[in-house]
Hints:
Largest sheet: 4 strands, antiparallel
CATH topology: Alpha-Beta Plaits
Radius of gyration: 13 Å
Helix content: 25-40%
Order of helices and strands: EHEEHHE
Mean pLDDT: 96
Amino acid sequence: MPKGYWIARVTVTDPAKYKNYTDLAPAAFAKFGGKYLARGGKYEALAGEARARNVVIEFASLQAAHDCFHSPEYQTAKAKREGAAIAELVIVEGVE
């Protein structure tokens, strides 16, 4: 079964408020077996609009990635991010 991935691109607009999100979100990822592959760090924009924070999280399946996003734990964390960041998030299925 192919793995599932979250790919997030984020511009943090209020770091203090964003911390409320980053304090809660990792528990949701852990509950669904999420593993950070990239989290912030250095980046190089090669095409298109870039965002300063890029995150890739691996899950055992696309379904696990989906279930994590829709979980009460993640939705609570996500609500804390409102007004603190501009975020784009996709989930994608990996290849076998």
